Amino acid sequence: MELLCIRQWISGLLPTWLSAWCIKPVGGALVRQEPEYILLALMGSPLKKIMLCSSEKEIFSVEEQVMVQHSVIINNMIEDGSYNHEESKIPLDCVDSKTLKKVIDYCTHHTHHHNDNQEDLEAWDAQFLNVDSNGLYDLLMAANYLEIRNLLDLIYGTIKNMIKGKKIDEIRRIFNIKDHGFTPEEEEQNRKEYPHFY
Amino acid sequence: MSKVFGFSGVDNFCPGGSIYACGNPKEASLFLPLGPQVDVYFPPRKRSRISAPFVFNGEWLEQKQKTSIESLPDECLFEILRRLPAGQDRSACACVSKRWLMCLSNICKSEICCNKSAAPQSSLSVKEGDDEEFGGEGYLSRSLEGKKATDIRLAAIAVGTASRGGLGKLSIRGSNSDRVVTNLGLKAVGHGCPSLKSLSLWNIATIDDEGLIEIANGCQQLEKLDLCKCPAITDKGLIAVVRKCPNLTELSLESCPNIGNECLSAIGKSCSNLKSIAIKDCSSVGDQGIACLFSSTNLLLSKVKLQALTISDLSLAVIGHYGKAVTDLVLNSLPNVSERGFWVMGNGNGLQKLKSLTVGPCLGLTDVGLEAVGKGCPNLKAIHLRKSTLLSDNGLVSFVKATSSLESLQLEECHRISQLGFLGVLFNCGAILKAISLTSCFGFKDLNMVLPPSSPCESLRSLSIINCPGFGNATLSVLGKQCPQLQHVELSGLNGVRDAGLLSLLESNEGGLVKVNLSDCVNLTDKAVSSLVNLHGWTLEVLNLDGCKNVSDASMVAIAKNCPLLCDLDVSKCTITDTGIAALAEAKQFNLQILSLSGCSLVSDRSLPSLKKLGSTLLGLNIQHCNSISSSTVDMLVEQLWRCDILS
């Protein structure tokens, strides 16, 4: 009963050209495809949730649409069908729970609030990245692994701003670079050539 | 109780969570009144209880194991660094650590991106500004030698010059030390220096085609390339450069055994701007390559130098036929070239524009060959022949007769040439020859000859006889009569020349000598010098008496009296004393700019006032090996003659 109502509702939502198009070839014959599946496929299944498993074996349940929109890796996994909604969870062994939670926060906020104005989003982003350097690197590695483009750009930009305008000794301290790898002569030459950078 | 001691240290002991679970211990809020949910019995780590006030010290931070940016993979570091705009920040980051430097040096111009700023117009203008700034116009030039030639230095140069005007000229001289330049360094240069115009790589065995291909990809404005002793570079690398750098005008290859014909034919096909090529000691280059190089229609070489190659007569034939634009040709040490090669080259009628020909030790250069060249190159102005042992007097004379525009003749170590040939040249040169120079021609013997009367050679301006032991007074007097318009005379190392000979030369001279170099003519005395300055002092500008042991103060007096225009005087190793210097200083209207007294041991501190007086116009003073001049005098001179460059 429920399904029928949903079906009608969805059919009402579909534009007519698309309804006509709900035909797919199956075994050489053209079979009318149920419209709700098409719409669900188009909308990325808003109601479906997926499970992400952190390195600490903690499971997080997230709306599929949210992750698919942001993470290229997860999008690919779901598209090529290797993910079975009923049973499997996506193991993310390089991401710990705390970071995964933050990543999910980011994706969720940006999906639900993507119509907000730029300033509000930027303010939220700034607040989001108000973590220490360890946390920042963890976020960066997670975003890199999951290929979340806009989070990556955000973090890169933040780190770049941390570098900009600073002197070299300060940069080494901030980023905890203990061994710069230059020989003593090279280091001395650099100091002579660019004294105003140190 | 046992449970407490048996505790292994798990965070959820404290109901509110351990306050040290989060990263930054410096967060002030942590130490404000602890909420009731946090247990004050401290964290389950095996450390002593810390009571208030809380004291920070460094070791606490270290125990926390703060990770550093070094733990990020290279691709992340790359992404961060490529967002930095070109400029000071990039140069600063290049000095932060070696890893950052190498990462920065791998970023090429197209990979730098700017901030996405709110207003699209401003981001566009920032981007344009960056484009211009990156790489610049190539004003800077850098040179790395020996121990300093390392990949890191190259990367630093590539990053550092990008925002300060751009690197235009780079030369790297390798060495046998442990840290050398490799392909990585060249890759950095390729990425960071798009305006590189001139690259010179010597003696680097560790770079190969890959490095050169990186340069080809990145530095497409390259104009000059010079490779010497780079055994790992083969045709492939050079072909890449040739194809991608359309502005290449000068190419020089030396001792690169793996570069051969393929590369030359690629040059023939692709390089339309190449003007000058020099190939020395490349064993893989042969006739085929040279043929492809010259016979191509879109390549017009004007300067060609081929040395120590295994090419044969065929190459010379090709050059003779196709070398329509060649103006300067140098052929040195070509063992497989025979007389036929030169003959064919001359008869090819292609070398119409040849102005200057230099032929080094080639057994093929015989009388017949040279004559053919003389006939075939109507515009030949200068010829320099070294070690042409087969060339005889007849050949030289017939050559001079065959040319119609020869202005300068230089012979070095041509031992079969004697006076006859020399005088034959003078008789037959057709009033165009301006300069003649003989160096180390041992075939000269000073013979007293009676010559037929002939018109003197009015055009000869410059005569230079260096180290030809047989040259003596007789020849000199004949010369004097034959060449009355000489202005530059150089007679060096000629023991046979004595005063009488020089006198006859001086007397016959009508024009007025301007530059006279009589170095190492040990048998000349004051008498000759005095006559010289008496007769020609009013035009003399440069006088060199280096090594003339018999010249003494009397000459100095004469010089002082008679030479108002003299600006360069060299009396090294002559027997000059303080009196002589004083005499020089007394001269009126003396405008001496360069004075050399090196090896004059009789000049002492008493000359100081005279030197000071001379120093008012002096620009260069050489007092090396003047053992009688003390260092305090030298210091005083240096102090007072601040305009003068003093060698001591």
Determine the strand fraction of chain B and express it as a percent band. 5-15%
Which blocks of ≥5 consecutive residues of chain B have pLDDT under 50? Answer: 11-25, 27-32, 54-64, 115-132
Highest CATH level, the class of the domain at 527-647 in chain B? Alpha Beta
Estimated structural class of chain A: mainly alpha
Q: Beta-strand percentage of chain A?
A: 5-15%
Distance between the termini of chain A: 74 Å
Any idea what the shape of chain B is?
A: flat
Give the radius of gyration of chain B. 37 Å
Can you give a write-up of this model?
The complex is a heterodimer of chains A (198) and B (648). In chain A, a hairpin with a 2-residue loop joins strand 1 and strand 2. Chain A is elongated and about 75 Å long. Chain A is built from eleven helices and five strands, in the order H-H-E-E-H-E-E-H-H-E-H-H-H-H-H-H. In chain A, 58% of the residues lie in helices and 10% in strands. Chain A is mainly alpha-helical. In chain B, strand 6 (276-280), helix 12 (287-295) and strand 7 form a beta-alpha-beta unit. Chain B has 24 helices and 20 strands. Chain B is flat. In chain B, helix 19 packs parallel to helix 20. Chain A binds chain B through residues 118, 131-135, 137, 140-141, 144, 152, 156-157, 159-160, 163-168, 171-172, 175-182, 186, 190, 193-194, 197-198, and chain B through 22-24, 66-73, 75-76, 79-80, 83-84, 88-89, 91-93, 95-99, 115, 118, 152-153, 156, 160. Chain B: This is EIN3-binding F-box protein 1.
